[in-house]
Amino acid sequence: MIAAEAFLAALADAGLAMYKPALDPDGNLHRFRVDGDKAGSQNGWYVLHLDAKPFGAFGSWKTGQSQTWTADKPESLTPAERQALQARMAAARAARDAEQVAIHAEAAKRAARLWERAVPASNDHPYLIKKQVGAFGIRAMRNQIVIPLRTAGGELASLQFIGADGRKTFLTGGRKRGCYHAIGRPQAALCICEGYATGATIYQSTGYATAIAFDAGNLLPVAKALRAKFPTICMVIAADNDTETDGNPGLTAATAAARAVGAALAVPQFGKAADV
């Protein structure tokens, strides 16, 4: 039980404490509700072996975290034990990847059903009025605007919901990485940014096609996907200038994305964080 308690402590240290802890150390992948997540959600996952050499892996579909755990320090293992550990790690990764594919497929079906039920959004939604932007390819449902996340091939993968108060949520289990919402058709240039309001503002101001990546961490995957789709187009990464956040994550991510795909970098200068 000491190893099990250590594994639970590792979950907690990673910010993935298990709600009502209950471990099944059978070596298979199990999903669980992370403490603090909404009821019914199972964003956390783990694989656990509690034999002579306890080993586990865990992560979150919601945050993208993924890490391994061992009760013994790797340097204390024999070559044969390290080889066995590597095999277990590979098996855990394969189980995680297979489950991720299933979760994404399930979420895509839910997204399609919800998208069909939603109605075209109008420009008088409180969030759009506040941001002074129009409704471009988005819909509305229960006082929220609904923004589709699509793959570079055009398949609907997930949805983002934005309430009248600006609160943003994503469809549980939906794929985000490499997915985006497109406004306009790429011609002279293609812009990539984080949020919907930023993208709509860019499109209204310049007429350039804009892809919304939804957050800083997704700028690089979206930029790579679009560079593969449009290898010669002039591309601009429009950064969120998070001057009031340590490390300025918006600018840091945008700079890395621009360098990776040979794009120009546009940075707003407002004297304070410019995240819309």
Overview of the molecule:
By secondary structure, the chain is α+β, with helices and mostly antiparallel strands. It has two domains: 2-108, no CATH class; 118-266, no CATH class. It is built from six helices and 14 strands. The protein has helices at 2-13, 79-117, 126-131, 196-206, 219-229, 249-261; strands at 30-32, 44-49, 55-60, 66-70, 119-120, 139-141, 144-150, 156-162, 168-170, 181-183, 189-193, 209-212, 234-238, 264-266. The strands form three sheets. The chain has a five-stranded antiparallel beta sheet with strand order 5-6-7-8-9, covered by helices on one side. Strands 10-12-11-13-14 form a five-stranded mixed beta sheet, with helices on both faces. A four-stranded antiparallel beta sheet has the order 1-2-3-4, sandwiched between helices. Strand 8 and strand 9 (168-170) form a beta hairpin. It is globular and about 65 Å long. It starts with a helix and ends in a 10-residue tail after the last strand. Residues 272-276 have low confidence and may be disordered.
Topology:
Elements: H1 2-13, E1 30-32, E2 44-49, E3 55-60, E4 66-70, H2 79-117, E5 119-120, H3 126-131, E6 139-141, E7 144-150, E8 156-162, E9 168-170, E10 181-183, E11 189-193, H4 196-206, E12 209-212, H5 219-229, E13 234-238, H6 249-261, E14 264-266
Parallel strand pairs: 11-12, 11-13, 13-14
Antiparallel strand pairs: 1-2, 2-3, 3-4, 5-6, 6-7, 7-8, 8-9, 10-12
- Compressed to H and E, one letter per element, the order equals HEEEEHEHEEEEEEHEHEHE
Radius of gyration: 21 Å
- Strand content range: 15-25%
- Overall number of domains: 2
> Major β-sheet, in short?
5 strands, antiparallel
**DSSP strand tally:** 14
Alpha-carbon distance between the termini?
A: 48 Å
Which range best describes the helical content: under 10%, 10-25%, 25-40%, 40-55%, 55-70% or over 70%?
25-40%
Strand order of the largest sheet: 5-6-7-8-9
Low-confidence parts: 272-276
Globular, elongated, flat, extended or rod-shaped: what is the shape?
globular
Overall structural class, as computed from helix and strand content, comes to alpha+beta
Count the DSSP helices.
Answer: 6
**Overall mean pLDDT:** 91
